[in-house]
Design a protein that fits this description.
The protein is an alpha+beta fold. The chain has one domain. The protein has one helix and six strands, in the order H-E-E-E-E-E-E. The radius of gyration is 28 Å and the shape is rod-shaped.
Length: about 160
């Protein structure tokens, strides 16, 4: 009868030892997996900011080119919008006449403002573009900025509506 109890006790002890070993392994592995997910999240955020900077630079450089040609110059360009873009402002943060293209990008630390400067007066409304994807943007030089009380020349940016 004792051999049956010893056999069960030995099986119980080996199961307990296996459980302890697996617990230590998980305790070591869990922080490593957590750090890996944090690093991936940071990398995705950094990539979105870089792609937003490229798109803002493309818009502002094309606006500068169109402004140098003067009214009625126009160009339609294709712009890739990365994930995590919350909004796009042209001119200033109220879409008034200014000198910047501003992308608002969500990141784990909050909102980031990605800007690109242009020497030309720019205005526009790209607020409808916030989902990731490829969009066509119409960039046109005007002798007077549309939707503005100031009759100054500017370059107006608007999405091409299909």
């Amino acid at each position: 009868m004792n051999s049956g109890k010893n056999s069960k006790a030995a099986k119980g002890q080996s199961s307990f030892e296996l459980l302890i070993t697996l617990s230590f392994g998980l305790a070591i592995l869990l922080p490593i997996v957590t750090l890996a997910f944090i690093q991936i999240s940071n990398a995705n955020s950094s990539l979105a900011a870089t792609e937003a900077q490229q798109a803002a630079s493309k818009l502002s450089s094309t606006a500068t080119l169109i402004a140098s040609e003067g009214a009625p110059a126009k160009q339609v360009i294709q712009v890739q919008i990365p994930p995590n873009v919350q909004s796009i402002f042209v001119g200033n943060l109220t879409n008034g006449i200014g000198h910047e293209v501003i992308f608002t990008v969500r990141s784990p630390t909050g909102l980031s403002y990605i800007t690109s400067y242009t020497p030309a007066n720019v205005s526009g409304n790209l607020g409808g573009i916030s989902l990731p994807g490829t969009y066509l943007v119409n960039i046109s030089a005007n002798s007077a900025c549309p939707y503005s009380n100031n009759p100054i020349p500017c370059v107006y940016l608007a999405p091409v509506v299909p």
